[in-house]
Every structure is written in structure tokens, then in C-alpha cells.
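Each record in this resource describes a single protein on a pair of labelled lines. An example record follows, reproduced without changes.
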Amino acid sequence: MSKRLTKKKVALFLKREKYFKEFVNQNDLVYSDFKQSFANKRVGLLVKSYLNILGISDITINTENHWEVLNFINLSSYYFYYHYTKKLSSKKLTQILNTIRLTAKKHSFTKLESNYEKELLKILKRDYQITFTEKQIQKYFNYHEIYNYVANAFCRAFQKEKKQQIYDYAYWYILHAYTRKYLREKQQNNIWYKLFFLELISSQKFIQAISDFSPELFNILIIRNNKILSSRESQRKVEDWWKNH
């Protein structure tokens, strides 16, 4: 990792609350909604991932060039958290979503467009004969808009030949995190195995994207995300279950 991006510097970026506070206040949101400790612990993952990618790429890190992206990623992380946990009113959630849309348009976080939710559905059907009802699709595959915005924010600082790789990584990584942290909670067996394969494929995709971009970053992320990657043993058990049902 670049010497310019140490763990201490990452921590300092995450603590620079005044920039995010200004952003929240400028958009007429309630800052106290973004100070809840139970939410705060969950939303730093995307920001840390973005900073790690910049560090590996030897791109100079400074607030002038990157804070608007960091603010956007941070806000989007809160949106994901509150949307899936239902710990914020629908009115406030809509306000956050509208701010995300306006900010994405303002900073052109819309240039690349690859709908990997649709691709994932095709892979599940083709390779595993797994299909979802329309109701399930609306519930689990209805977030392309936000995935696309955040993935565009991730890749903005990179040159043409690297943009698509970082876009792919960010999109699949967010989709994977969503599946891992929320979709598998309190699910019945008839949907659990489907979500397992969803998680498995999305993890393979984001690993492939980041390994294509940088073998060094690939190794770092594998070490850091070791606990959330599915083991061969758990994969074997689910595949056996699938064959016998």
C-alpha cells in the first residue's frame, strides 16, 4: 500500500466529520440521523474500501479532490443501512434518496452503466436453475440505481482503462455486502439457498474485478475480507443440499 495511505490516515479521514456534516446540512438533512452509534459502525466499510483502492493506486489523497466522493459514498452507505434495517422513517429515507440522486447528477456519477443485477439473475438461472418470483425480484434486485451511482463515484478518479474494473468491483462488492449482511438474516430455507448462490457469485465477481485491476490490492482485500468469503466446506454443504431437494 502507498505510504501516503496508512491505517492512521484512513482513520483520520473517517473522523473528519465536519466535511460530512456540512454536506448533510447543505442538503437539508438531519445530521443527528447520521450520528447513531449502531449505524456508524456499519457504514465505514465502503469508505475504507475506496481509500484503500486510492492508496494502492498511488493517487494523492486530499479532501479537495476526494471529499465530495467520500461524502457521497458515506451518505449512500447510510441509505443502505437504514433501508435494510428500517430504523429510519420512510419520509427521511426518501429525503436521503433524493439527495443521492441530486448529488449523483451534479457530479456526473452516471457515466458508466452496467446492470449487474440483471446479469446476476441470468447467471443464477443459467448455471444453477435458480429463479425468483416477481415479488422476490422487487425485494432483492431493485437497487441498481444506487449501486450504479456508487460504482461511478468509486471509479471517477481513474483513467479510462481502469474505470470499468473499479466500477465492476464497487458494484459487485456492494451487492455482495447487501446480500451478506441483510438478505440472509432470518430467512427461510426455501430462499436461503438462493441467497447463498447470490452471495457466492457476487463475491467471485468483485474478487475477479479487483484482481484484474491490481494483484496487490487483491491480496490485501482477501486477507481483510477472509471472514466474509464463503468457505469451500460451506459451499459443498449447500451444493449437496441443492442436489438433494
Residues 227-243 have pLDDT under 50 and may be disordered. The chain has two domains: 8-107, 113-213.
